[in-house]
Amino acid sequence: MSSVPAYFWGKQRKLNQNQSKSSLRTTIYHLEKQMTWFDIHWFSKSFPFHHRATFTPGLGPPKIPDGEKVDFDDIHRKRMEKDLTELQSLIEAHFENRKREEEELINLTSRIEKRRSERAEQLRIRAEKEKERQNKQAAEKARKEEEEAKKKADDDAKKKKVLSNLHITGYMQMSERRGGARKQTEREKKRKILSDRRKELNVDSLNEEKLRDKAKELWQWMYQLEEERFELQYKHRRQKYEVTVLRNRVSDHQKSSKGPRSKRGLRK
Questions:
Q1: Kindly report the CA angle at 151 between 154 and 207, in degrees rounded to 5?
Q2: In whole angstroms, what is the distance from residue 22 CA to residue 217 CA?
Q3: What pTM was computed for the model?
Protein backbone atom coordinates (compact mmCIF):
# COMPACT_ATOMS: atom_id res chain seq x y z
CA MET A 1 0.00 0.00 0.00
CA SER A 2 1.77 3.17 -1.25
CA SER A 3 -0.44 5.88 0.22
CA VAL A 4 0.47 7.42 3.59
CA PRO A 5 -2.22 7.26 6.32
CA ALA A 6 -4.21 10.46 6.77
CA TYR A 7 -3.40 10.84 10.42
CA PHE A 8 0.34 10.61 9.59
CA TRP A 9 0.17 13.35 6.96
CA GLY A 10 -1.82 15.51 9.36
CA LYS A 11 0.87 15.18 11.98
CA GLN A 12 3.62 15.68 9.43
CA ARG A 13 2.16 18.93 8.11
CA LYS A 14 2.11 20.33 11.60
CA LEU A 15 5.88 19.92 11.98
CA ASN A 16 7.80 23.14 11.65
CA GLN A 17 10.98 23.20 9.61
CA ASN A 18 12.78 24.98 12.45
CA GLN A 19 11.69 22.31 14.96
CA SER A 20 14.50 20.76 16.92
CA LYS A 21 15.70 17.23 16.30
CA SER A 22 14.61 15.99 19.74
CA SER A 23 11.01 17.15 19.33
CA LEU A 24 10.91 15.47 15.89
CA ARG A 25 12.11 12.20 17.38
CA THR A 26 9.49 12.42 20.12
CA THR A 27 6.74 12.98 17.57
CA ILE A 28 7.95 10.08 15.43
CA TYR A 29 8.02 7.84 18.51
CA HIS A 30 4.38 8.62 19.34
CA LEU A 31 3.38 8.07 15.75
CA GLU A 32 5.10 4.69 15.66
CA LYS A 33 3.20 3.67 18.78
CA GLN A 34 -0.08 4.11 16.86
CA MET A 35 1.04 2.49 13.60
CA THR A 36 0.43 -1.01 12.32
CA TRP A 37 3.17 -3.23 11.03
CA PHE A 38 2.42 -2.25 7.45
CA ASP A 39 2.70 1.49 8.27
CA ILE A 40 5.95 0.88 10.12
CA HIS A 41 7.37 -0.84 7.05
CA TRP A 42 6.41 2.10 4.88
CA PHE A 43 7.73 4.51 7.52
CA SER A 44 11.11 2.80 7.57
CA LYS A 45 11.45 3.35 3.82
CA SER A 46 10.29 6.97 3.85
CA PHE A 47 12.54 8.46 6.58
CA PRO A 48 16.35 8.43 6.92
CA PHE A 49 17.97 6.14 9.42
CA HIS A 50 19.22 8.87 11.76
CA HIS A 51 15.64 9.90 12.59
CA ARG A 52 14.68 6.47 13.89
CA ALA A 53 17.92 4.90 15.01
CA THR A 54 17.35 5.43 18.72
CA PHE A 55 13.57 4.45 18.82
CA THR A 56 11.79 1.10 19.16
CA PRO A 57 8.24 0.96 17.78
CA GLY A 58 5.34 -0.27 19.95
CA LEU A 59 4.42 -3.03 17.50
CA GLY A 60 7.36 -4.78 15.94
CA PRO A 61 7.29 -6.33 12.48
CA PRO A 62 7.27 -10.10 12.21
CA LYS A 63 10.59 -11.82 11.81
CA ILE A 64 11.34 -12.51 8.21
CA PRO A 65 13.99 -15.11 7.45
CA ASP A 66 17.04 -13.85 5.65
CA GLY A 67 17.10 -14.43 2.00
CA GLU A 68 13.31 -14.56 1.58
CA LYS A 69 11.42 -11.84 -0.13
CA VAL A 70 8.02 -10.91 1.30
CA ASP A 71 5.31 -10.77 -1.33
CA PHE A 72 2.73 -8.38 0.00
CA ASP A 73 0.58 -8.89 -3.04
CA ASP A 74 0.43 -12.59 -2.24
CA ILE A 75 -0.47 -11.80 1.37
CA HIS A 76 -3.15 -9.42 0.21
CA ARG A 77 -4.43 -11.99 -2.30
CA LYS A 78 -4.59 -14.70 0.36
CA ARG A 79 -6.36 -12.36 2.71
CA MET A 80 -8.85 -11.47 -0.01
CA GLU A 81 -9.34 -15.17 -0.75
CA LYS A 82 -9.94 -15.81 2.94
CA ASP A 83 -12.43 -12.96 3.11
CA LEU A 84 -14.09 -14.25 -0.04
CA THR A 85 -14.30 -17.75 1.43
CA GLU A 86 -15.83 -16.38 4.62
CA LEU A 87 -18.24 -14.29 2.57
CA GLN A 88 -19.23 -17.31 0.50
CA SER A 89 -19.75 -19.29 3.71
CA LEU A 90 -21.94 -16.52 5.08
CA ILE A 91 -23.89 -16.36 1.82
CA GLU A 92 -24.38 -20.13 1.79
CA ALA A 93 -25.47 -20.07 5.45
CA HIS A 94 -27.85 -17.23 4.65
CA PHE A 95 -29.39 -19.12 1.74
CA GLU A 96 -29.64 -22.28 3.82
CA ASN A 97 -31.41 -20.36 6.57
CA ARG A 98 -33.65 -18.75 4.00
CA LYS A 99 -34.43 -22.13 2.44
CA ARG A 100 -35.20 -23.58 5.86
CA GLU A 101 -37.42 -20.61 6.71
CA GLU A 102 -39.24 -20.98 3.38
CA GLU A 103 -39.79 -24.69 4.07
CA GLU A 104 -41.08 -23.87 7.55
CA LEU A 105 -43.37 -21.23 6.04
CA ILE A 106 -44.66 -23.74 3.47
CA ASN A 107 -45.25 -26.32 6.21
CA LEU A 108 -47.01 -23.73 8.35
CA THR A 109 -49.19 -22.68 5.42
CA SER A 110 -50.06 -26.29 4.66
CA ARG A 111 -50.93 -26.91 8.32
CA ILE A 112 -53.11 -23.81 8.37
CA GLU A 113 -54.91 -24.93 5.20
CA LYS A 114 -55.34 -28.43 6.59
CA ARG A 115 -56.70 -27.06 9.85
CA ARG A 116 -59.03 -24.75 7.94
CA SER A 117 -60.35 -27.62 5.81
CA GLU A 118 -60.80 -29.80 8.92
CA ARG A 119 -62.67 -26.97 10.63
CA ALA A 120 -64.92 -26.52 7.59
CA GLU A 121 -65.60 -30.27 7.52
CA GLN A 122 -66.45 -30.24 11.24
CA LEU A 123 -68.83 -27.32 10.73
CA ARG A 124 -70.46 -29.12 7.79
CA ILE A 125 -70.93 -32.32 9.82
CA ARG A 126 -72.28 -30.33 12.75
CA ALA A 127 -74.75 -28.51 10.48
CA GLU A 128 -75.89 -31.82 8.98
CA LYS A 129 -76.39 -33.32 12.44
CA GLU A 130 -78.32 -30.25 13.58
CA LYS A 131 -80.51 -30.40 10.48
CA GLU A 132 -81.11 -34.13 10.99
CA ARG A 133 -82.01 -33.51 14.63
CA GLN A 134 -84.49 -30.80 13.68
CA ASN A 135 -86.04 -33.03 11.01
CA LYS A 136 -86.33 -35.86 13.53
CA GLN A 137 -87.97 -33.55 16.05
CA ALA A 138 -90.42 -32.30 13.42
CA ALA A 139 -91.24 -35.87 12.37
CA GLU A 140 -91.71 -36.92 16.00
CA LYS A 141 -93.96 -33.94 16.64
CA ALA A 142 -96.05 -34.69 13.53
CA ARG A 143 -96.31 -38.35 14.54
CA LYS A 144 -97.49 -37.45 18.05
CA GLU A 145 -100.03 -34.99 16.67
CA GLU A 146 -101.29 -37.63 14.25
CA GLU A 147 -101.54 -40.19 17.05
CA GLU A 148 -103.41 -37.75 19.26
CA ALA A 149 -105.82 -36.89 16.44
CA LYS A 150 -106.35 -40.58 15.69
CA LYS A 151 -106.86 -41.36 19.34
CA LYS A 152 -109.35 -38.53 19.70
CA ALA A 153 -111.24 -39.72 16.63
CA ASP A 154 -111.30 -43.28 17.98
CA ASP A 155 -112.57 -42.06 21.35
CA ASP A 156 -115.31 -40.03 19.68
CA ALA A 157 -116.28 -43.00 17.53
CA LYS A 158 -116.37 -45.27 20.57
CA LYS A 159 -118.52 -42.84 22.50
CA LYS A 160 -120.92 -42.49 19.57
CA LYS A 161 -121.06 -46.25 19.22
CA VAL A 162 -121.81 -46.73 22.93
CA LEU A 163 -124.53 -44.10 22.82
CA SER A 164 -126.04 -45.59 19.69
CA ASN A 165 -125.97 -49.05 21.28
CA LEU A 166 -127.71 -47.68 24.35
CA HIS A 167 -130.35 -45.99 22.23
CA ILE A 168 -130.85 -49.09 20.12
CA THR A 169 -131.10 -51.28 23.21
CA GLY A 170 -133.66 -48.99 24.80
CA TYR A 171 -135.67 -48.78 21.59
CA MET A 172 -135.62 -52.55 21.20
CA GLN A 173 -136.74 -53.09 24.76
CA MET A 174 -139.55 -50.62 24.28
CA SER A 175 -140.59 -52.28 21.03
CA GLU A 176 -140.52 -55.70 22.64
CA ARG A 177 -142.66 -54.53 25.52
CA ARG A 178 -145.16 -52.91 23.16
CA GLY A 179 -145.29 -55.64 20.55
CA GLY A 180 -145.20 -58.53 22.94
CA ALA A 181 -142.03 -59.92 21.35
CA ARG A 182 -139.86 -62.38 23.11
CA LYS A 183 -137.68 -60.77 25.77
CA GLN A 184 -133.96 -61.41 25.73
CA THR A 185 -132.38 -62.92 28.75
CA GLU A 186 -129.62 -61.15 30.64
CA ARG A 187 -127.04 -63.56 29.28
CA GLU A 188 -128.01 -62.82 25.70
CA LYS A 189 -127.84 -59.10 26.33
CA LYS A 190 -124.41 -59.47 27.82
CA ARG A 191 -123.20 -61.53 24.89
CA LYS A 192 -124.51 -58.97 22.43
CA ILE A 193 -122.87 -56.08 24.22
CA LEU A 194 -119.57 -57.95 24.47
CA SER A 195 -119.68 -58.85 20.80
CA ASP A 196 -120.23 -55.20 19.95
CA ARG A 197 -117.44 -53.96 22.16
CA ARG A 198 -114.92 -56.65 21.40
CA LYS A 199 -111.99 -55.58 19.21
CA GLU A 200 -110.05 -57.81 16.91
CA LEU A 201 -106.30 -57.91 17.58
CA ASN A 202 -104.21 -58.09 14.43
CA VAL A 203 -100.74 -57.98 15.99
CA ASP A 204 -98.91 -60.51 13.84
CA SER A 205 -97.54 -57.96 11.38
CA LEU A 206 -96.80 -55.21 13.92
CA ASN A 207 -93.30 -54.21 14.99
CA GLU A 208 -92.20 -53.34 18.51
CA GLU A 209 -93.14 -49.66 18.33
CA LYS A 210 -96.61 -50.38 16.92
CA LEU A 211 -97.15 -53.07 19.54
CA ARG A 212 -96.40 -50.50 22.22
CA ASP A 213 -98.89 -48.13 20.62
CA LYS A 214 -101.47 -50.93 20.44
CA ALA A 215 -100.94 -51.74 24.11
CA LYS A 216 -101.43 -48.07 25.02
CA GLU A 217 -104.59 -47.96 22.92
CA LEU A 218 -106.01 -51.07 24.64
CA TRP A 219 -105.14 -49.66 28.02
CA GLN A 220 -106.97 -46.44 27.22
CA TRP A 221 -109.96 -48.46 26.01
CA MET A 222 -109.95 -50.55 29.21
CA TYR A 223 -109.70 -47.37 31.25
CA GLN A 224 -112.73 -45.96 29.42
CA LEU A 225 -114.68 -49.18 29.98
CA GLU A 226 -113.89 -49.06 33.68
CA GLU A 227 -115.18 -45.50 33.82
CA GLU A 228 -118.37 -46.53 32.06
CA ARG A 229 -118.80 -49.52 34.38
CA PHE A 230 -118.37 -47.32 37.42
CA GLU A 231 -120.89 -44.81 36.07
CA LEU A 232 -123.40 -47.57 35.28
CA GLN A 233 -123.01 -49.12 38.72
CA TYR A 234 -123.54 -45.74 40.33
CA LYS A 235 -126.55 -45.11 38.13
CA HIS A 236 -127.94 -48.55 38.93
CA ARG A 237 -127.60 -47.99 42.68
CA ARG A 238 -129.16 -44.57 42.35
CA GLN A 239 -132.11 -45.89 40.37
CA LYS A 240 -132.57 -48.77 42.81
CA TYR A 241 -132.65 -46.31 45.67
CA GLU A 242 -135.15 -44.10 43.88
CA VAL A 243 -137.37 -47.12 43.12
CA THR A 244 -137.30 -48.17 46.78
CA VAL A 245 -138.20 -44.64 47.89
CA LEU A 246 -141.05 -44.48 45.40
CA ARG A 247 -142.40 -47.84 46.53
CA ASN A 248 -142.36 -46.74 50.14
CA ARG A 249 -144.19 -43.56 49.23
CA VAL A 250 -146.82 -45.51 47.29
CA SER A 251 -147.31 -47.89 50.19
CA ASP A 252 -147.67 -45.04 52.64
CA HIS A 253 -150.11 -43.27 50.35
CA GLN A 254 -152.22 -46.39 49.99
CA LYS A 255 -152.35 -46.91 53.75
CA SER A 256 -153.38 -43.31 54.40
CA SER A 257 -156.06 -43.27 51.69
CA LYS A 258 -158.06 -46.26 53.08
CA GLY A 259 -159.35 -44.70 56.44
CA PRO A 260 -161.90 -46.31 59.04
CA ARG A 261 -165.05 -48.07 57.64
CA SER A 262 -168.58 -46.97 58.89
CA LYS A 263 -170.85 -49.64 60.40
CA ARG A 264 -174.11 -49.70 58.51
CA GLY A 265 -177.27 -51.30 59.75
CA LEU A 266 -176.38 -51.03 63.39
CA ARG A 267 -179.08 -49.74 65.67
CA LYS A 268 -178.56 -47.16 68.26
A1: 110
A2: 135
A3: 0.28
